[in-house]
């Protein structure tokens, strides 16, 4: 059967979950897989997630051996209620890296999972900042309602204050922890109750906002508290605004428990309804390519190397922007003009990889790569060339000096560094005058991956000297003055030769700004 592009695009939903480690990202992903019928048993995803979390940093190679697991789970595609849902993993913990940020450039929505006992934590804030610049819908799930957490009003106020986004509570907890009675659902105008057999049931609200019929819970103070809160939200809170949600200006907030599944289906149903189909993408020629355009186009946002050490294969992850991808089709890689037959592509399921037969805008496909692709590359079918806008680079936060151990291996050292930098695995800097190599990364693991790959793929052993965390700020070359150097900053240049100061800490940056108020310090995204 020939699939209709418009229908296929309409039912696509591509999103990532942003959260601080341990907020419940894995658990809620698993619930989605359960509801969609992709897995039958709870614990499947978690067991896998746990396995890689357990490894110490130096065991990266062992993690790599298990990559079959963590990579297939880095993109998952499931059917949920007629929608084709693509979930992109944003690695946290030790795996946190620029890849995590770049993945957010390939999604149309984000789900922010917050531990209701803890509120907004640092990693959530960082990821939120990247997502909010894109103006895509952001859905909030306040998790772990089965435990005693913080006051719901505090949580919502903190979310608005710390992240600077308006919030609209879609439902409101009736108690929490041991006293959890259910959810007062303002959006669907019903009360959601969890029965002891884990089946939820719903009681519609009457005109006054009371649960219809006779129920024991109606005489409890927890229920009247929820009614009071709902009244307050109605009078003093934000109004529901679909357009604002769609533009990422208003985040719908859902309460629930990923572990017990309570509130999860309500959340998922609203998510697929309120999030939108794949968006058009802008080209460097300032044109929008629309998802329903006949012609296939896509861009590469991530390259994962060495997934199978025996084959040294790499997989380039492509976000499809428009048209229909068909197995075996020929595409052009815009940067080089080279044509490539897409014979071996892979799509990612919950626990296996499958050859792709066809795919549409919003889908992620994996191309087996022998070194053709770079992050940010555009591929397209047909004769008319397309180049999507460049993906942003992210300001690295930790730095490391690096040098070859054996001077005889200089050549392979340089070749290795050049290729890994191109791949986007790590950022390269040099001290401004002495040209010593400095690596910059968003997460510690990137250094270990770098060291391991340089040794295994380029046979170059390296000496690494940690420099710790720094604040990197770019300045215009004409502003540069030798007097600006101090013991609290290090002047370096990036791989394009642009000057960048590495400040010891916030104090050092502020001190610099006081001394040189005329100089503009810039950061990457
Ligand atoms: P992450 O992927 O965001 O890092 O978090 P993950 O889902 O692995 O959850 C982190 C911990 O929080 C796990 O406990 C998980 O069971 C628990 N958790 C997740 N959602 C809920 C919830 O709604 N309620 C409660 N009470 N706990 C939740 P753990 O002790 O680290 O693992 P395990 O020993 O339970 O497997």
From TrEMBL:
<dbReference type="InterPro" id="IPR005225">
    <property type="entry name" value="Small_GTP-bd"/>
</dbReference>
<keyword id="KW-0963">Cytoplasm</keyword>
<keyword id="KW-0648">Protein biosynthesis</keyword>
<dbReference type="InterPro" id="IPR009000">
    <property type="entry name" value="Transl_B-barrel_sf"/>
</dbReference>
<dbReference type="GO" id="GO:0005525">
    <property type="term" value="F:GTP binding"/>
</dbReference>
<keyword id="KW-0547">Nucleotide-binding</keyword>
<dbReference type="InterPro" id="IPR053905">
    <property type="entry name" value="EF-G-like_DII"/>
</dbReference>
<dbReference type="InterPro" id="IPR031157">
    <property type="entry name" value="G_TR_CS"/>
</dbReference>
<dbReference type="Pfam" id="PF16658">
    <property type="entry name" value="RF3_C"/>
</dbReference>
<dbReference type="Pfam" id="PF22042">
    <property type="entry name" value="EF-G_D2"/>
</dbReference>
<dbReference type="InterPro" id="IPR004548">
    <property type="entry name" value="PrfC"/>
</dbReference>
<dbReference type="GO" id="GO:0016150">
    <property type="term" value="F:translation release factor activity, codon nonspecific"/>
</dbReference>
<protein>
    <recommendedName>
        <fullName>Peptide chain release factor 3</fullName>
    </recommendedName>
</protein>
<dbReference type="Pfam" id="PF00009">
    <property type="entry name" value="GTP_EFTU"/>
</dbReference>
<comment type="function">
    <text>Increases the formation of ribosomal termination complexes and stimulates activities of RF-1 and RF-2. It binds guanine nucleotides and has strong preference for UGA stop codons. It may interact directly with the ribosome. The stimulation of RF-1 and RF-2 is significantly reduced by GTP and GDP, but not by GMP.</text>
</comment>
<feature type="binding site">
    <location>
        <begin position="19"/>
        <end position="26"/>
    </location>
    <ligand>
        <name>GTP</name>
    </ligand>
</feature>
<dbReference type="InterPro" id="IPR000795">
    <property type="entry name" value="T_Tr_GTP-bd_dom"/>
</dbReference>
<dbReference type="InterPro" id="IPR038467">
    <property type="entry name" value="RF3_dom_3_sf"/>
</dbReference>
<dbReference type="InterPro" id="IPR027417">
    <property type="entry name" value="P-loop_NTPase"/>
</dbReference>
<dbReference type="InterPro" id="IPR041732">
    <property type="entry name" value="RF3_GTP-bd"/>
</dbReference>
<dbReference type="GO" id="GO:0005829">
    <property type="term" value="C:cytosol"/>
</dbReference>
<keyword id="KW-0342">GTP-binding</keyword>
<dbReference type="GO" id="GO:0003924">
    <property type="term" value="F:GTPase activity"/>
</dbReference>
<dbReference type="InterPro" id="IPR032090">
    <property type="entry name" value="RF3_C"/>
</dbReference>
<feature type="domain" description="Tr-type G">
    <location>
        <begin position="10"/>
        <end position="279"/>
    </location>
</feature>
<comment type="similarity">
    <text>Belongs to the TRAFAC class translation factor GTPase superfamily. Classic translation factor GTPase family. PrfC subfamily.</text>
</comment>
<dbReference type="GO" id="GO:0006449">
    <property type="term" value="P:regulation of translational termination"/>
</dbReference>
<dbReference type="InterPro" id="IPR035647">
    <property type="entry name" value="EFG_III/V"/>
</dbReference>
<feature type="binding site">
    <location>
        <begin position="143"/>
        <end position="146"/>
    </location>
    <ligand>
        <name>GTP</name>
    </ligand>
</feature>
<dbReference type="GO" id="GO:0016149">
    <property type="term" value="F:translation release factor activity, codon specific"/>
</dbReference>
<feature type="binding site">
    <location>
        <begin position="89"/>
        <end position="93"/>
    </location>
    <ligand>
        <name>GTP</name>
    </ligand>
</feature>
